[in-house]
Amino acid sequence: MNGVCLPAQSEGGKAPHHASVYDDILKTARETWQNALGNCNGCGLCASRCELFGDGIASMSDIVGSGMVLLDAIEELFAESGFDDRTISDTIHTHTEKYDKLYSLTRRCCLCNNCTARCPGAVRADRVMRPWRALYQRSGLFGTVNNDLKSVEVDKEWHLFSVYRHLNGVFYPEFIHLDDAGPGQVDTLFFPGCTMVTYMDDSVRATGKLLDDRGYRWAIDLGCCGSPLVGRGLPERVETLQRKLLDRCHAAGIKRIITVCAGCEMELVEAVGKHGVGAPEVISLPQLLVDLGVDLPESPQDVAFFDSCHDRSQSHGSPLRRMFAGCSICKLEHEGQDTLCCGAGGAVSSFDAEIGGIRAGRILEEAVAAGAKILISSCPTCAYTFAFQKIYGNPPSESAGIECRHYLELLFGIETDWSQVFARAEWMWTGEHSAWVLSELT
Fold first, then answer.
1. Residue 48 falls in which region: left (phi positive, over 0), alpha (psi -120 to 50) or beta
2. Can you say whether residue 271 is alpha, beta or left, with left for phi > 0 and alpha for psi between -120 and 50 degrees?
3. What domain range includes position 221?
4. How far is the C-alpha of 120 from the C-alpha of 59, rounded, in Å?
5. Are 137 and 234 spatial neighbours (Cβ–Cβ below 8 Å)?
6. What is the CA angle 315-320-321, rounded to 5?
7. What is the number of structural domains in the chain?
8. Is 90 a member of any domain?
9. What does the alpha-carbon distance between residue 369 and residue 416 come to, in Å, rounded to a whole number?
10. What integer pLDDT is reported at residue 331 of this predicted model?
11. Euclidean distance between CA atoms 259 and 269, whole angstroms
C-alpha cells in the first residue's frame, strides 16, 4: 500500500473506510517520515547535539522508523477488517505504551532543530516531530495538557494574550489596524507577534513611530503566527489562521510584512509560499533597520547575542550584529546555526514543568562563561523567557548580574518592566476578573 488514506471498499466483508479525522495527518506523516528516512544515513550526529537522545534512540532514523511501524500497523488493521477512528486511536495508544521512551522524547522536543542543524541529509527535526504531535492530539494522548489548550487558542477571540491586553488596556488606538485599513491606505504590515504586542508595548510604539518618521504607509496586526498551535499538534488550525491573515493582507493591499520574531518569519514565509502569486514579501525588522541606516544611541560593551532557534539562517542575527558592530561582542558557545532553545519552544513546559527553566538557565551560564554583561535577544519570547528565569527561576548566582534585554530596548532607550508584566499576568488569574478569565481560558 502507498499510504493510509484508503478508498472506501467492502469486498470480502471488509468494513468500508470512511472519512476519518486522521486521514490528512496520516498522509502527511507517511510522506514526511518516508522522506526523512530516505535522507537519514543513521550517522548519529543529531544524537550528539541533543540530550534527549539515548535509551535506544540513537538517531533520527529511529524516530521516523518507529513512526513507519505505527503507520504500517494501522494499514494492516485496515487490510484485515477496516477501521474507525477509535481503532486508530487505540493503535496509537498501544504503540506509545510500547515505545514510551520515544513518546517522552517527542513530547520534550522543543522543535528547535538544533539536532538536525548540520544534518548531512538535510532532515529537519521539527518536520519529523509535527506529525507525532498531531497524532497525540487527535488520539487524546495530550491528556491533561489540553486543560491549558484554551489559553493558547490564538485563532479564537480570547486567549492568554488577548485577555491580558483587554484587562490592561493594550490596544494601540493610535495606529491603523489591518482590518481597518481602507483601499490604498497602507502597503506594509507591522507584525510584532503575540509576545511583543502584548507585553512589550513601549517597544511596539517606538517601532511604530520610527515607521511613521520614515514615511511608511503601514498598519499593525495584533495577531499570532500560529506557533502555539504547532506545538500542540493542530496543523490544520495553523494553516487556516495563516491563510486568513494573508487573505486580509491581500484585501488591504499589503506588499510586505515586517516581522520582529524569527519564528513568525519562518511560519509566514512558509505560508506565503503556499499562498501563491501576489503574496506579500516577509522581511525581518533588523534587516529593515540596517537598510534604513538606523544607529544605536550608544554602544554598550560586553554584550552577547542569543540567536533564536528559528533564526539559524541569521536573517535577524546577522543584521543585528551589524547594528551593534561598535560594541564589544562576547561569543556564546552556541550561536548562529548552532544556537540552542531558550526553553520556551515546542510547548514542552506543559509536559515537563522543569525543562524550560533548565534550558533557559544553560543559556545564562553560557553568557557568564563568555564574560558578557548584557545578553541580547532578537526574539521577544526569548527575552520574556530569560526575564522569567531570572526573576522566578533558580539561575546560577554568577548570572544574577547579567542584564537580559531585547535589542529594541537598547535601540530606543527603553526598558520593559518584566516584574510588572508577570505581576499583571498573575493578577489575571487571581484578581477581580479571575472568574471570567478562568471561564474563558480553562
1. alpha
2. alpha
3. 151-291
4. 13
5. yes
6. 110
7. 3
8. yes
9. 25
10. 96
11. 10
pLDDT in tens, 101-118: 999 999 999 999 999 999
Placement of cell 488550525 in the chain? 237
Average pLDDT, the chain: 91
Cα(261)–Cα(313) distance, integer angstroms? 13
How many other C-beta atoms are found inside a 10 Å radius of the C-beta of residue 138?
Answer: 20
332 & 390 share domain: yes
Segment 143-168 shows an average pLDDT of: 85
Q: Give dist(CA 6, CA 21) in Å, integer.
A: 13
In a domain, 433, yes or no: no
269 and 398 assigned to the same domain: no
Statement to judge: residues 314 and 398 lie in one domain: yes
Distance of CA 16 to the CA centre of its chain: 39
- Are residues 312 and 395 both part of a single domain? yes
Which pLDDT value is given to residue 9? 40
Residue 394 belongs to a domain with what CATH number? 3.40.50
Tell which of 291, 320, 342 closes a domain. 291
* Closest to 370 measured CA to CA, from 315, 306, 310: 306
Pair 135, 226 in one domain: no
Q: Residues of 46-64 as b/e, b for ≥16 C-beta within 10 angstroms?
A: bbebbebbeeebebbbbbb
Give yes or no for residue 355 having a pLDDT over 70: yes
Match 522536543 to its residue by C-alpha cell: 109
- Give pLDDT tens digits for 14-60: 444 555 778 899 999 999 999 999 999 999 999 999 999 998 899 99
Residue 396: the pLDDT is: 64
Q: What is the mean pLDDT of residues 381-386?
A: 97
Please, which pLDDT band fits residue 144 given cuts at 50, 70 and 90? low
Q: 408 lies in a domain?
A: yes
